[in-house]
Design goal:
single chain, about 160 residues, alpha/beta, Nucleotidyltransferase, domain 5
Length: about 160
């Protein structure tokens, strides 16, 4: 990553399933100056809240076209703690937890690590459904992603 990272992109992400496990959706809001990009997607089959919460920042970071500083907001303590506290230990231990169990969602943790390595990412936790406009929008986008995935799967039958 270049040391000349000067622009800051603010990203809010959310993900979830209905039921959990079940079909899921993710959403992300990316802001840089006056530019706003809304993203969403979903999985019509059985996935989990945690997988969708991880997918949202991955997709947002992978959508960036050049290295930037990112302020990434998530309402998932699993995602924030995982990427800021746990992931290096998991990697060092061969992707095993401290209880010697395989790390769940290792494919997504590795992909998130790679996406983060392209940027200077600062992680922030925000309480879900607390009136933070872009977090609420990310939640709405995640719901749209879930609904679109389920509808597309129904059409494919």
């Amino acid at each position: 990553m270049s040391s000349e990272v000067s622009e800051t992109v603010v990203i809010h992400t959310d993900g979830g399933c209905r039921p959990n496990p079940g079909p899921g959706g993710w959403g992300a809001v990316l802001r840089m100056r006056e530019h706003v990009r809304e993203m969403c997607g979903g999985e019509p089959g059985a996935t989990s809240n945690n997988r969708m919460e991880l997918t949202a920042p991955i997709m947002a970071l992978e959508a960036l076209t050049r290295p930037v500083t990112v302020h990434l907001y998530t309402d998932s303590t699993y995602v924030r703690n995982g990427i800021t506290k746990w992931v290096l230990g998991w990697e060092r231990n061969g992707w095993m937890t401290s209880a010697k169990q395989p790390v769940k969602n290792v494919d997504l943790w590795q992909r998130l690590q790679l996406a983060c390595s392209q940027h200077r990412v600062e992680w922030f936790w925000v309480k879900g459904h607390s009136g933070v406009a872009d977090n609420e929008l990310a939640d709405q986008l995640a719901t749209r992603g879930l609904e679109e995935a389920v509808a597309a799967a129904a059409l494919a039958i």
